[in-house]
Write a structure and sequence with these properties.
GO molecular function: ATP binding; ATP hydrolysis activity
Largest sheet: 6 strands, mixed
Distance between the termini: 58 Å
Radius of gyration: 19 Å
Strand content: 25-35%
Low-confidence stretches: none
Keywords: ATP-binding, Nucleotide-binding, Transport
Bound molecules: adenosine-5'-triphosphate
InterPro entries: AAA+_ATPase, ABC_SmlMolc_Importer, ABC_transporter-like_ATP-bd, ABC_transporter-like_CS, P-loop_NTPase
CATH class: Alpha Beta
Number of strands: 10
Number of helices: 9
Mean pLDDT: 91
CATH architecture: 3-Layer(aba) Sandwich
Pfam family, one: ABC_tran
Organism: Altererythrobacter rubellus
Number of domains: 1
Amino acid sequence: MPDSVIHFRAVARHFDDVIAVGGVDLSVAAGCFVALVGASGSGKSTLMKMVNGLEQPTTGQVIFAGEDVSTQPPAKLRRRIGYVFQSIGLFPHMNVAENIGIGPRLSGQRLGDGRIRALLELVELEADMTSRMPDELSGGQRQRVGVARALANEPELLLMDEPFGALDPITRDALGERVRALHDALGLTSIMVTHDMAEALLLADRVLVMDAGLIVADETPAALLAGKGGEIAQGLVAVPRAQAEKLAAMEREGSRS
Ligand SMILES: Nc1ncnc2c1ncn2[C@@H]1O[C@H](COP(=O)(O)OP(=O)(O)OP(=O)(O)O)[C@@H](O)[C@H]1O
């Protein structure tokens, strides 16, 4: 498929006798926003890390932009793939501008002040944030800087692993919508790991559900809401649906009293 940015071909990753990823075949089309959901330990992070070379498949191949990831130099992958991983935070000894510019700097390029201001603007942060240190920012601001850093190299692919996990619900909602708007405006291809099925349904074009190292559902949000995707996917959809129903019932009760 020429318009696919990434292909997984029978990709498995074992850690001794633990099968983290058990044989995944998957293609992601250019321009698609994919959410990857599933229980803790189902293999989501391991699958993502095999895209940018942080983990290597035990068997199978990950193909990015037509080439096997294992044959591409790490620096080239870093330039073409932006990532926001909760486990890989900002560098604490670098200010905001230095954090945003680290990717280009590693490839021998210096980001100008104008470009840094433009990146801050993309994630709706004030231009005077540039000299702040990470510990002088709120969690939401740090995640915004993380997104700006991931976009600094104008990546073709954006990988996000629980990017908004530690944020309060209002900030999380706002940042999710901002990232989706950026995805559309910049013509990105994005894959986002989340534990939150509601977030996946609201933001993604395509929702993948992982269970025990395998992708057990691959549906659009509309198809999932219409009951497709099988038992595990429907178990995850049931949670936000039940919450929405309870809230609607409370609202009805409230309007009667
Ligand atoms: N470096 C490692 N060494 C050994 N086992 C690992 C390693 N990385 C992951 N695993 C195991 O592989 C399985 C899948 O882990 P992974 O982190 O991919 O799951 P996940 O779906 O991302 O979980 P979570 O939602 O909790 O982040 C787990 O059983 C985990 O313990």
